[in-house]
């Protein structure tokens, strides 16, 4: 099947700041490091290749059968009904969310809420009813106002997804698409990814409904911040420090660093530079304000300070990478950041690409 992905994250305030790259010298990175002497790690667990392979097998093997995914089939016209998904289908989505959070060193104990699942079903039916793929779709003429209000409450507070065809495990694939998030429309903010990697996330809701002409729609309620125990961290990197699977990362995907705003001051784009180095051939990149053009591929940089997930994020992508292969190792160094105390901070970590399926 040729899977068509369409997804958008809800925006509180949308500011677009795009990128493209040049090669930095080791001397430039060394000089930057001297200028900002305090190096900060993520403060999150770092996982091994064996641990990742075990979680891949446990969490990322959704059912490929074609059985009915619904307990009650949603009705997107006529007598509107939200329907309900089988628990097993919802759990496949929960598992995918937990896998990506595990990779990032975050708590991976996300659960679905029956209340949020029902909300997501209303949103999915609203999207499917006329195929208006938007966070605020207009009311279908025959849809009861009360039903529409519940659907709108969902879509306006959710990640949403549309897929053409139905021979693929759509819910897990929607989570993959939210984590990719690197098409031209989403690249400047990575809103879907940042909500899923919000450290305080605890409960989600998943819905799905079928529309006309083999289109299927899904809503993911993900704005929850109800985790009781506060996560102590400095930043959330994706790809994360240590082993990271090639199966979920491609050259067109953006790298990102979400800062803990209780540890860092709001970053200023003109001050921040991201240095990357591929250790196999010592290829180096320096990404900053000159790299602001939004493209499907190639070098990119943005400092995004709006309220997606946990707060400010650095978004970047090197150019000229044909493939991330098992055995590839990259070093990331970020300068121009300040701690909450006003002192300079360097973010620095290594990413070691591995295969999760081997």
From TrEMBL:
Query: What UniProt keywords are attached to this protein's entry?
Result: Signal
Record-linked Gene3D superfamilies: CAP
Signal peptide stretch: 1-30
Read off the InterPro entries from this record.
CAP_dom (IPR014044), CAP_sf (IPR035940)
- Sorted alphabetically, which Pfam families does this protein's record hold? CAP (PF00188)
| SCP domain ranges (all copies) | 94-216
Q: Which CDD domains match?
A: CAP_bacterial (cd05379)
Q: What is this protein called?
A: CAP domain-containing protein
Q: Which organism is it from?
A: Cohnella endophytica
């Amino acid at each position: 099947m040729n899977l068509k992905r369409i997804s958008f994250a809800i925006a509180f305030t949308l500011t677009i700041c795009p990128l493209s790259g040049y090669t930095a010298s080791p001397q430039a990175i060394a000089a930057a490091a001297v200028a900002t002497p305090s190096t900060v790690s993520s403060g999150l667990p770092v996982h091994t290749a064996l641990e990742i392979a075990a979680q891949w097998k446990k969490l990322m093997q959704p059912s490929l059968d074609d059985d009915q995914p619904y307990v009650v089939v949603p009705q997107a016209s006529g007598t509107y009904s939200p329907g309900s998904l089988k628990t097993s289908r919802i759990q496949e989505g929960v598992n995918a969310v937990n896998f990506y959070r595990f990779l990032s060193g975050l708590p991976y104990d996300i659960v679905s809420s029956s209340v949020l699942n029902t909300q997501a079903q209303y949103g999915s039916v609203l999207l499917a009813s006329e195929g208006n793929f938007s966070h605020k779709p207009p009311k279908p003429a025959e849809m009861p106002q009360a039903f529409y209000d519940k659907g709108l409450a969902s879509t306006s507070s959710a990640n949403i997804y549309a897929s053409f065809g139905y021979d693929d495990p759509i819910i897990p694939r929607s989570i993959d698409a939210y984590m990719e998030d690197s098409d031209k429309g989403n690249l400047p903010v990575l809103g879907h990814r940042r909500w899923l990697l919000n450290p305080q996330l605890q409960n989600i809701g998943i819905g799905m409904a079928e529309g006309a002409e083999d289109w299927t729609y899904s809503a993911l309620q993900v704005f929850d911040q109800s985790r009781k125990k506060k996560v102590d961290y400095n930043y959330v990197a994706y790809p994360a420090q240590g082993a990271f699977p090639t199966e979920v990362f491609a050259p067109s995907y953006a790298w990102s660093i979400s800062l803990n705003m209780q540890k860092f001051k709001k970053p200023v784009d003109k001050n921040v530079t991201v240095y990357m180095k591929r250790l196999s051939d010592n290829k180096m990149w320096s990404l900053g304000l000159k790299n602001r053009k939004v493209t499907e591929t190639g070098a990119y940089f943005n400092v995004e300070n709006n309220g997606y997930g946990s707060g400010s994020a650095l978004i970047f992508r090197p150019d000229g990478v044909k493939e991330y292969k098992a055995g590839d190792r990259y070093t990331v160094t970020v300068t121009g950041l300040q701690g909450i105390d006003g002192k300079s901070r360097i973010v620095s970590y290594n990413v070691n690409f591995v295969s999760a399926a081997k």
